[in-house]
Structure formats: structure tokens, C-alpha cells
Amino acid sequence: MREWWSKVRRLFTGRPGDLAAEIDAEIDSQMEFEIQENIARGMPPDDARAAARRHIGNLTQIREQAVDAWRFPPLETIAQDLRYGMRGIRRAPGFSLVVVLTLALGIGANTAIFSVVNAVLLRPLPYPAAERLVALGESDPNAEGISVTWVNYQHWRGENRSFEDMAGFRTAGLTLTGRGEPLSTRAGVVTYGFFGLLGAHPLLGRAFRPDDDQPGAAATVVLDYRFWVSKLAADPGILGATLELDGKPYEIVGVMPPGLRFFERGIDYYLPLHRFEGEIVDRGRHGSMRLLARLKPGVTLAAALADLDLIMRRLAKSDPGPEDQHHAHGTFLADATAGDLRPNLLLLLAAAGLVLIIACANVAGLVLARATVRAREIAIRAAIGAGRNRLVRQLLTENLLLAALGGGAGALLAHWGSRALIAAAPLPIPGLAETTLDWRVLLFAVAITLLTGLFTGIAPVFAAGRLDLVSALKDSSRLATGRGGQRSRSALVVAEIALTLVLAFAAGLLLRNLIAAETADPGFVPEHVLALELALPSSSYRSPQEIRGFYDRLEQDLNGLPAVVWVGAVSCPPAEGDCGDWFYSILDRPAPQPAEVPIALFNTADRDYFGAMRIPLREGRGFADTDRPAGPRVAIVNETFARKWWPKESAVGHRIKSGGPYREGPIYEIVGVCGDVGQMGLGTAPYPEIFLPFSQSPSAAMAVMIRTGGDPDSLAPAVRRSVTAIDRNLPIQSLRPFTRIVEASLAQRRFSTLLLALFAGLALALAAVGIYGLLNYWVRVRESEIAIRLALGAPQPSILRWAGWQALRLSSIGASAGMLAGWVVSRWLRNLVFGIADNIATLAAAALAVVAIAMIAAAIPIWRASQVDAVEKLRSL
Amino acid sequence: MSTVDDPRERLEFLQGTLEVLILRSLQVGPNHAYGITQFLERQSGDEFLVDNGSLYPAVQRLLQRNWIAGQWKMSPNGRRAKYYRLTPAGRKQLVAATSRWQRFVEAMGRVLAAEG
Predict the structure, then answer these.
(1) Is this complex scored with an ipTM above 0.90?
(2) Which residue of A34, A389, A435, A559 shows the fewest CB atoms closer than 10 Å?
(3) Hey, CA dihedral for A84, A88, A91, A96, is it positive or negative?
């Protein structure tokens, strides 16, 4: 090893010719010594020189031999190794095919998953110094990462010592008119420093200047590339033209380049935030603004947040109020963008890693078995003069060759696999579409391939190293059944079974969880409901009366359509996610500490929402026409809310205050309790929720639920006509059967569960191959022993029992270890996925399945053992 | 073919022994290639003929294994020569090789001297 290192170092540091020159100089100096000596003995100088030259010998030859010592073994030996390797692979086609396929599956599955993980989690964000970009929000004791108030932002930006720059951003929905059909569009509302932080320069025109981003400034808009191309036909003369948004003209001053995808759901154009926000002096006024900021080099996120908290503490003294308990909250942008997907991808990566380990164990077992069969061949080679290093090198070459073939096949599989993954992905996942087998993925695949090659290569090398030549030549079977080899192969099979069981168990748990979520009562009836989502623009619907007027008339018209059974509206439909939570307090309870004010989801529903969705009313009454806009304020809470505060008594009649004891807010009397509905998605944890009546708290954006007696899809055109009949400038946000919304909320879980099930299936197949290979080999080396037993009168059933016992023993040890490991893994899973429960039945089912498959795989070798022809076998011994 | 060794012919090195002998020659102190040759020839009672075609590659192999290190220095008579010295690893290797050689010689001796 040391020699190789020296040679490699010389290869990189030495110049060709240096070594030869140095050796020449050395020989010269030696010649001078000899000449001097010869002269000292009394020779004449010419003779002395000639004698010295004669004594030294052929100078060229010496130099070349000395330089040769630094060369690597000639290329021919490597070529020969490769040739022998190919010959070895061809000579055992079955073995080679199984190894290559096993590796291809292991490496292919891993690379496919890693490509996705790489695209979504690891690929650096396409911004300058992106590793220092952070997303900032505020936190209070109840919620992390809530919006930053405008006043706090001003102070943070002006007084911090940790950030290079800071910009605010949020999104807004506006209606575009005056260019064909009215269109509902999304704006990225940003402060002028935003583009600088992202390193984005406009493709046309300019980005915002500080004077665009001020209250009272002229209305300007910068277009997103995709919007410019798809809606404005990529018109290069668009600068200076106007866009009519919510009825007001905005001058187009710039177009951003393609590929700027900061906002997850995509936006159509950018508007200056400060101009939009106006002058705000109330420090406690939250909107939906978050901050983008770049840390100064060398400043940690924790130190920067501490810096901001210092500002918050100063402000608590100079400008006290509801913000006093708030802190700065920050995450690196790279972490924030992957967000919810992280657990899923990590889970899949762990599963892929397990499959690879199983694949490696399989290959190692196979190679180990083959090496012992080949012990005789190796012994003969050693006996006729092959050096041990050469033998080891050749075995390694053969295994690396197999690994390379497997890796190549795996890369192909990965390519198709990742295409299939992208095609099968249920939702637009940020970055997923850009998944390619880039150099990092390739490097990962190569590393796995080489490691696998080395790992499996080491096994036969150790076996060859331990070889006792004489006994190998005399009796290959005794050596092949040597205790050590058998034990390590058995250990591999046991480990394989254990790992497979863990995967099967994890897949089983997730599957059960998914089935539970799908079959669980969602708390409403999603079938036969058409969901119509609308957002009334504030430019044409200025007052609550106008909003109420629109929806009242719409529901009246919709109720007149044939087949329509019931029409109700809600502002945040089930499975829609977090549409907004807020502080509250219970009036007849002691006021909580400012830091402990509870929060709940606030939602708005009209009189018929609960009926149209078939959400049961547990107590009290639903909303009624008597809940007049100016009348006493009422609310309906969900079961989780009611149980949290009044586990023993009825919630009806109690009063809640919006905003909690320390903020302004109206007081509501609870008039009813409704059933829980998965607001964050089906099968998710229920969350306390407060419904306000639409009549008292009208909302411009509502989802109108239309229950029909027939097919919701066929009702859609009539619904569309009804909307246009009332307001032909109003865009429809979305119109689809509600079952499709429910599907979408389960789609991602279905996706990852499906993948995990695929992995478990793959692992089972690999483990079956491994067990088959081992037992098959085990029977082969024992054929003579079996023959002798049969010849001595052992009945066939006892041979079967003997072989069967081996298989059962290995699989039960593996299964026990796997059950233990599975139990540990299920703890980890429980932290990762909501609703996972310990489940003995699932564990037992997984163990049974794995043992059963192991026994099926063992059946063929066991049967073969019973078919040994005693006479023939004994004759061939 | 003569079966008896011709005493006029000098001994050839067995494979791998030259390296050990070079290490041994450096045990007494750093020396240059010619000095090593002279040492070996003198110590073997002129039984060994050290061929430069073997010596130089052997020295290179020892350098690769980090058993010796070389450095150009002035010799006592004012000539520049490359002096080699033992490294700690080389010293360890010499001890190991010496004891292995002694076992080999004893075994050879016992077998060859055995009667019958």
C-alpha cells in the first residue's frame, strides 16, 4: 500500500526526467569515488576511469531499471485481470445475472429517490449567497413564524447589526380587467430591496426603485416572465403600458427574467409593498408579511435572532402593547422551502438505504458462497505460482466489474424510475419538475456502486487469504463448509430478514394509517358536492351589504337550478389548510397570562353550510336568519373546542372574546357545537375552530358548496352561467367536485405510502433471492453428506426435516431481531407521521409474511436436498 | 553439470535479500550507493558481488516503502554524494527481517543436515 502511495505522489509531484537525472548524478558521484580509489591504488588516470566505468556496468540499463521501480504494474496485467473477470462472469451466468440485477435494483431505486431528494431538498437555491438567506417571521408563545408587523420590520431593518439587507414580501389576489375575460391574478407584493436580495435583474425595463415603494407614489408594476409570455404574448413594447388591477391602472415598468420562482405557488407580477401598505403606526398590526434577509458573513442565525430580540425588548419599553411577548423567528430559506416534504423524503431515503443494504448483503452472500465453491480453483492457481496479491487483485477486479455492470443497469433504472416518480407525483412539489440525473446524483450512484463493489469484493479476498492450500486441494467440501464461512453467510441472511421485516412493518403501518384516513368518517359527506370558489374584488364590492347581496342572490339562483339540493358557503372549506387563526379567551374564565392566550381557527359559514356539507350539529342550533348583522353576535364552535373548555357540560350559552383579554375584539355567544372536520386535510389532528355567521362577519372570498342529486361535473356549466349573469367581470377561482379536493389532500400520503410499499416489496424479493441462494448453496456442498446419510439408511423425510429446520431457524432469528428493530422504528415513525399507532397485529403480519416468503424461497433447495441420488453422488466422490 | 558449488564463482543474491542487506549496511550509519556496495562486499568476505543493476532498483524500492531516506551531502573528501539513512520504519523492518532470516537458515540447516 505504502509503495502505491509513494508512486502516486511521485506521479503528481515529480517531473518526468527528474528521477533519471538524479540517478545519473548519483552514478556519476559513485564513478568519481571509484576513480579516486583506483588512482590511489596507483593506476594511471585514464586506466582508473576505464576500470571504474567497467565496474559500474551498463549505465543506461541501471538508470532504466531504477526508474522502472517507480512504474505501476504494466497495463497488460490490468487488461488481463479484466479479461479473466469477464470470463469468470460469463462462466457463471446465473450467479452474475442475479448479482447484477440485485445491484441494479438497489442502486437504481436509490438513485431515483436521491434524484428527487436532491432536486427538492439539497439543490442549492438559485440565488447569490443563498446559504445566508433566511426567512424571518415573529413568534409568540402560541405560534411560530407568524407575520411581521410593518412597524417592527422598519425597526429591524434600521437597527439590526446582523443582516446585510432585509426585504418584506407577501402575496395578494387582484382581478385583472380590460384585457379580454376578467382574470383572477396573484401579485408578489415586495419592498424594493427584494430583487437585490435574490440577485435578480430585470429582463426588460427596471425593477422597483425606492421612490416607487412609497405611499403616494405613482402605481407601478413589474411583470413575472411567465405572465408576460402567456398573457401578454411576450410583447417587447409592453413597457409604459398599463395593467388594470382591481379597477386601477398600474404602469408596467419592467419584466423579470425566467426562472425567478421565489413564491411557491407562482405569481403573475410584483407590486411595491410600502406603497400598498401606506403609513402604518400601530406596531401590533399584523398582515401577512414575512421577511427575506441575508445574514452578514460569519453571523449565525441564532446570533442574528438574538440581535432582533434585543430590538424587540427595546421596543417593548418604548412602544408597549400586544407585541411585547413576541420574538423574532427565522429559518434558513433552504430549509423553509422544503418544509413539510422533509419527513416524507427522509422516510423514503431511509427505506431506499435499507433496500441497498439488503441488496449488498445479498450480493455479499452470493459472492461469499461462490468464493468457497471456487476455493479449489484459487488453490490451484496459487499452487502453480500466482502471487497472493495478484489473486486478490483479480477477485477485486471481477467484483468491481460486476458492480460496474450493476451500477450501469441501476443508472438506467434510476433514469426511468425518476421520470416515473415525477409523473406519479400528486401535487406540484417545488423543484420536483427540475429533477434530473445531475452530476451529484451520478456521483452518489458511482459512490454506492464502488462501495458495494469493494464491500462484496472484500468477502472472497478474506476467504482467499485464509486459504490453506493443501487442505483446499485435498478436499474442497470440508473447506467450503467451514464453520466461519457458513456462520457469516447465515448472519447475512438473518440480517436481511430482519431489515426486510422492518421495511414491511413500516410500510404496513403507513398503509394502515392511510386506509384509516381514507375510511374514517371525515365529519361531512364530500360526494355529490360541487365547490365554487370566488373572491369578490374590493374595488367593486366595497361594503358588507354589497358582499352579502352578491352571495344571497347567487345562492338563490343556484337553488333554482335543477337537481340542486342544498347550497351553503364557507370561507375556509375542509382540507383547505390553515386559513387563519387568532387569539381568543373565554369570558367566564380567569384571564390567561399574556404569553398564554390560546388560539383557534376562525372561519365564516352561512346558514346553510352545515346542512349542505352534512356536518352534524352536536348541540344547540345552527346559524339562522335571526342572526341579523346588527343583532347579538353569535358563534358555533367545533367539538374539539367544546371538549377543551367544557368537557362535562354544554358549551352553548358561554361567551368567547376574539383577540383574547389584551387585544380589542368582539364578544360572541356560543349558540351551537358542530362535529369536527379535518380542516388541515383528512385524517389530520382536529384543531379547535370557531365559526362566525356570514351574515355578521361577511367575507369576500367564499367557497360555495352546491349539493346536487346527480353528477356534480354536469352541473358546472349552469353554475358558471349563474355567476356570469350576476357579475360578468367576476373571475371564478375554482369550480370542481369536492371529492377531487379531498383526493388531493390525500394524494401526497398515498404517493409516499405507495413508494414505501414498493420498497418493502423490493426488499422482500431481494431477501427471498438471498435465502434461496444461501440454502441452495448449503444443499450443494452437503450433497455428499446427504448421499452418505441416505446410503446409511436415513429416511428421506428426515433429510427434509433437517434442511427445513435450517431455513426455519434462520428466518425465525431474523424475524425476532426484525420485530425488535421494527418496534424502535415505529417510535421514530410516530414522531414523523400523525396518527401512527403501535400495532402488534401489523408487526405480527409483517413477521408472518417475511417468514412465509423465506420458507417459500427455501422450498426449492430443500426439495433438491431430498432428490439427491445417493448412488450417483457416492460414485462421483 | 557440476553438482558441487564452484568456489571461484561469487554468490548471487536470493530474491529479496539484497533489500535486507542494504538496510543492514545502513544500520552502522548513513552511506551512499558506492559505500553500501563496498560494505556488503567487504562484510561478505567478497562472496557477494553487488551489481549496480540490482542495487539501484532495490534502493528505489526501499525509498518507496519509506524504509530509507536519501539526501545529497558532502562526503569527507569534499565530493557531493547522495547519502541514505534508515527511517524508524526501516529499523523495525530490519529487526523483523533478521529474525525471519535466522529462522529460515536454522530450518534449512536442520533439513539439509538431517541424516537419512
Answers:
(1) no
(2) A389
(3) negative
